[in-house]
Request: fold
Amino acid sequence: MSTTVKTRVSLTVNGTAHEHDVEPRMLLVHYLRDTLGLTGTHVGCDTSQCGACTVHLDGRAVKSCTVLAASADGSTVTTIEGLRPHGQLHPLQEAFWQEHGLQCGFCTPGMIMTGVGLLRDNPTATEEEIRDGLGGNLCRCTGYHNIVRAVQAVVWQMAHTTEMPALVPGDVIPPESLPGGILSSPSGAEINVPNPKNR
Amino acid sequence: MSTTVTPPAGIERFTAAEDTANIDRLFGARVRRKEDPRFLTGRGQYTDDVRVTGTLHAAFVRSPHPHARIRNIDLTAAGAHPGVVAVYVGKDLADAGVNGIPVGWLLPGLKPSNHHAIAVDEVRYVGEAVAVIIADSAYAARDAAELAVVDYDPLPAVADAEQALAQGAPVVRDSAADNVSFRWEIGDSAATAAAFANATTVVRQRLVNQRLIPVAIEPRACLATYVRATDELTLWVTSQSPHVHRLIMGAFVLGVPEHKFRVISPDVGGGFGSKVFIYTEEVAVAWIARTLERPVRWTAERRESFMTDSHGRDHITDAEMAFDASGRIVGLRVKTLANLGAHLTLFAPAIPTYLYGTLLSGQYRIPAIHAQVTGVFTHTTPVDAYRGAGRPEACYLIERMVDLGARQLGLDPAELRRQNFIPPNAFPYLTPVALQYDSGNYEPALDRALAMADYKSFRAQQERLRQQGRYVGIGLSSYIEACGLAPSQVVGQLGSQAGLYESAIVRVYPTGKVTVFTGSHQQGQGHETTFAQIVGDRLGIGIDDVDIVHGDTGRVQFGMGTYGSRSGSVGGTAIALSLDKIVEKSKKIAAHMLEAAPEDIELTDGRFHVRGSPDRSKGFADISLAAYLAHSLPAGIEPGLEATSFFDPPNFTYPFGTHIAMVEVDADTGQVTLERYIAVDDVGNVINPMIVDGQLHGGIAQGVAQALWEGAEYDDNAQLLTGSLMNYGLPKAHQLPFFELDRTVTPSPVNPLGIKGVGEAGAIASPAAVANAVMDALSPFGIAHLDMPLTAPKVWQAIQKSREAGAKAGGSSATTGR
Reply:
């Protein structure tokens, strides 16, 4: 291996604590993909435009190509793989499936992580607010039509908890778990939901 | 169980997917995609996700010059950088016998190019690779690439096709001193000249169909491994056609035996044509892995994608359309310069010829058409197929010319179209440009689109708004597409160096579960679902009992891949033909088990029963188990249940429709806002309406973006100015509205499923619809035509020019401003 200065980072990713020596310049997305093998977070550009690399860092949606692994030291990260325990789907994942909000699937993890962040900040987002909120994520397949609808579907579900449709066939999410249930991380406690007013 | 979802205000159809329990028939049902759970949870596997222990990383040193002689390349410092394992220049590969990448479509007199994996002696476009660094990490490889010292002798360069033809223009390739790769024509020039001589009205327009960059969100990538002991080379690559990759790379470029070379294209993150072709990096990485006997990978950075992914379009056209006194189109004459870039890639010669000139009749009965196309080399990135590939250029030309004709004749553009449509009783219809349209019925799609747009009310409202100084416009595009590429014998005569059939193996297991091996592939179209629907529909089994395998030459029989909207109509039909064979054999086995005649066996809801006796029946799994147990099979029937088919259709298919765009132009800023977009398409029979709608959404977005925002720009020195997502106008969510779709259904007679194809329709129709709408909005300013993209500065300048001219002439309220 090439000899370079290394720095020690400790992160909790999807509920598991990790500690590694990394190059100080290593990007968080490369740490997730190459060191941890979490390849669900994608790289689609080198100018922070496409948003395919979006993850949650201490509860906020960030582009992991624009964060150094070293500067994420001590943080809690949630990637698409950790949004729900394996085999289960977050309501927004379910809505993307139901509304055909993905085609090639490459932008999808970033879209969903951004979408969950958007819904957390603004659970009653209008179409315009959703479109603006997705401005940092590019999709070349869908024309955004069904992506916007998928986010709208969850907005609508959160506003109509008494008429809550089955999000997973045979598995109705209880209304009392919403909206917190929709927006919480798999382990519940690890994500520190920021107050949007403090932004 | 699902409960009904009441849609929010303004959303007319909210729940896209249907509950499979409520579906009568799988073919035509809006079922959720089988492939989605892996994509939704980050478990998709794209090429860059494949991990092999001990992999080395490649970084390419690329030319900053569009044209230069390479005097010297000094890789001493790069080679000494920590972590670097090897460095190579173009000569290393050429000396080892690595050939240039051949062109796959030949035209008479074509001047081909020799596209080396790494440039030798001369570079011909910005971004062309001149060396490659192999290191133990991607970071180290990139660091070392920065240390390469290349001594260039910069030479004059030309980016524009028209300028490349001028006397004294810089020469791209010595084999084509005039920079002309080919001259091609179609149609009857004498008959067309006569039609123009007799015409009462002729409209003429120079049209630029600007260069586009595909920008699949997944960058191109490859990973190669080689095992000396077995002589097996494996290449994972972002390809739409892995078998074609293997054939060309193995047999023509690397000299690797086909049976020892496996090409795997796992999940492909969008391609839109750009991932059909054999790229230089893939050749280099495969050769280096074989040479070093170590795994080697490369993944494009986005800036590399902009410079090296094949581009699309880039036509400069002089078009003339002739009309008689009643408004009938009597002739069309076209002269096009097609910019091919510095090298000819796989299908490059076919795109501006057989996929363009042959489409120039559109939906119209035009008695005489003549088109000349000149393919021109320039010092730019190679140009090849991008979503639509030739057909968007044809559609834009025809639909712009029809609108210009309507304006000159003072006729309504919708009615001028209607008047010139090929009538429904004229099919199959032979155009003057060599195609025979399979089926069509154009007026219902036009009528439905006009009704959805409330066209008459819009016109009235438009007039009122103009009085208030607001400029709205409506634009139509009645398009035709030739897809389902298609008859091998025909394309062979036209210059294709490959057939265009598709293959399918349907393998039924003893328990009645099914795996389909398709020679097609997918890059987001959802074939794992739609193909499973074909199988489930025919055999009466659920789609969860069917898996679709594609994209791996080690698992799948030879096939042609996915492009040209062909996977459903050609690949899907190959599956259907294999299913016919499965059903036929199953009926014989069922007849034997039920002691009946095979001709008396019917298949209903997944059960084989004796006609008239529904209770005398066997399930599909009973048959498959009997086929594999083979304890008691009818005489002459082999054990097992599996069928192979290759489908070579007798013709292309011809989807059609009418799209309508409604825009508002802010006259003070030139900003165009797309207010509504209506599309009525006829893609023949539909396997999954949800997926078909999705294909249209994406295609429309790409075409709208061509009309309004996107365009690859080179400066006068052939430097690419739009080399990143910061300066190339890829649309974002807030720039687009919801699209309003509907369909008419005219089944294709070309294949037994009646499918036409949908992958490209949206991108073909939409640029003209939007451009026509903007020109309609700008008509009070006397602006008849502006070239795409219709950006705010361009529109604003045109309005200013018109206002200044109007002020001088003491003109109308529109031209003098509000």
Q: What stands out?
A: The CA atoms of residues 121 and 196 of chain A lie 6 Å apart. The beta strands of chain A are 7-13, 16-22, 54-57, 60-63, 76-78.
